[in-house]
Design brief:
Blueprint lengths: L4 H11 L2 E8 L2 E8 L15 E3 L4 H8 L3 H15 L7 H14 L2 E4 L6 E9 L5 E10 L5 H22 L9
Antiparallel strand pairs: 1-2, 1-6, 2-3, 4-5, 5-6
Length: 176
């Protein structure tokens, strides 16, 4: 989280929305930091220190998509009870988002967990290619339309590359 403070602040400034850093802990993730943008409507869906199973949340979905199929299946088995809390969500939809995230290199959820809220997430991988964390941006759905969403995704991917380079450089290597 300390290594990503500037990244979070930069993304919050450029997007004007809420930015989250989540760190993978097995088949769960912990929100380890967040930064608030200046847009007056905030999407405060995660609390720092909050823990959710992989598969619930844009960042968590991005991490899940980067795991081997066996780990995805185990995570989805564990995610079932959490998924039941969201009326627009089921395991089939989670699988569809994971498949799309694998194809596109990012996750996108539109009003899937919370009506009126959308988010994109990009996994941060360790040297071994396994996701160790994610960055995500959450906003009201009207702020995540196609062109702006493409910009947010590009900003996220650029920042993730920089974080991975810093973490995986000599002396800073982190494995999943």
């Amino acid at each position: 989280a300390e290594r990503c403070e500037d990244t979070l602040a930069s993304l919050a400034e450029i997007t004007q929305d809420t930015v989250y850093l989540s760190e993978r802990r097995g088949l769960e993730a912990v929100c380890s930091a967040r930064a608030l943008g200046e847009f007056p409507i905030k999407t405060l869906t995660l609390e720092v220190g909050g823990r959710l199973p992989l598969g619930v949340g844009a960042g968590n979905l991005a991490m899940l998509a980067g795991l081997p199929d066996d780990d995805v299946a185990r995570a989805l088995d564990r995610t079932g009870p959490q998924v039941a809390r969201y009326p627009n969500l089921d395991i089939g939809r989670v699988r569809a988002v994971v498949d799309a995230a694998r194809r596109h290199g990012h996750s996108f959820v539109e009003a899937l967990f919370i009506p009126g809220m959308s988010a994109v997430g990009v996994a941060i991988s360790g040297r071994d290619g396994v996701p160790i964390a994610s960055l995500s941006v959450a906003a009201i759905t009207s702020r995540m339309r196609t062109q702006r969403r493409a910009n947010v995704i590009a900003w996220l991917k650029s920042e993730v590359r920089a974080v991975e380079n810093a973490l995986n450089s000599v002396g800073g290597a982190v494995d999943g």
